[in-house]
Amino acid sequence: GIWKQLSGPEAYYIELFIKQIPCM
Question: What's the predicted TM-score (pTM) here?
Answer without folding.
Answer: 0.37
